[in-house]
Amino acid sequence: EDNYFESKTKVCKCISFIFPD
Fold this sequence. Notes:
Helix content is 81%, strand content 0%. By secondary structure, it is mainly alpha-helical. The N and C termini lie far apart (28 Å).
């Protein structure tokens, strides 16, 4: 579960970096 959460956080950070709010 931790791995999945970490992966999701990474994806969110990536999206945030590409598409800054």
